[in-house]
Fold this sequence. Notes:
The protein is about 35% helix and about 25% strand. It is α/β, with parallel strands linked by helices. Strand 3 and strand 4 form a beta hairpin. The termini are far apart.
Amino acid sequence: MREWYASLLGQSMLSAVDEQLAEILPRLFGYQAVQLGQIAPQVDLLRNAGMLRRVVVDPYTGAADPLGDRGDSVHIGAAAEELPIASGCVNLLLMPHTLEFCADPHQALREADRVLAADGHLLILGFNPHSAWGLKHAALAWRDYAPWNGRLYSAARIGDWLSLLNFRILRRQRFYMRLPIANRRLIESTRFMEKSKPVLGLVGGAQLILARKQTIPLTAARSRWRPRRASVIAGNFAHRQRRQRDD
């Protein structure tokens, strides 16, 4: 995916992804943001997030240097299915094409649920299978090169997985209306298609899902008995009985 995002078509897609993230991330705040996989080392996708600390978890980070500072973020070498991160300490988790290329997407989502703090946000980026990009994927899936050798999942299917983990879907965004053809003239001449998003947005080549980890507050049950008042009533009744016996 790094090589593809460095290509002509990939750079065009990356620009659209960056625009979408620039619209969403400034509204999210917290202490720590984590990105699973680095699809474009030259672009910090989390730079617009209102977080104090940014971490990139990438299985291709060198084993000799599993933890190191690079610019304003920390890089850790690990897989999405087994994150070396404490539970409940991440406020924002970005998964760019993680589900499409990991061995076990269900386990990756369970790990995301584990490391996210209460009311933490999850951002999932992927290709839309119900688009021209999905058609090209179906035609070229047998060829072993990215991005066509991944497994594409619809937004509805991902939403079902997230609902089982008690996530609430806040936003489903489909974008990048251009055709998956690496031709500079065609890419430039179809720039106007981005304006048709309100009409043809469902067939956008990329999709972005924003979800929030829900927490169920523990509400104390209201007591049905009032022992103190009951004891007062019982005491008054016993006092009246004694007075009647004395009389």
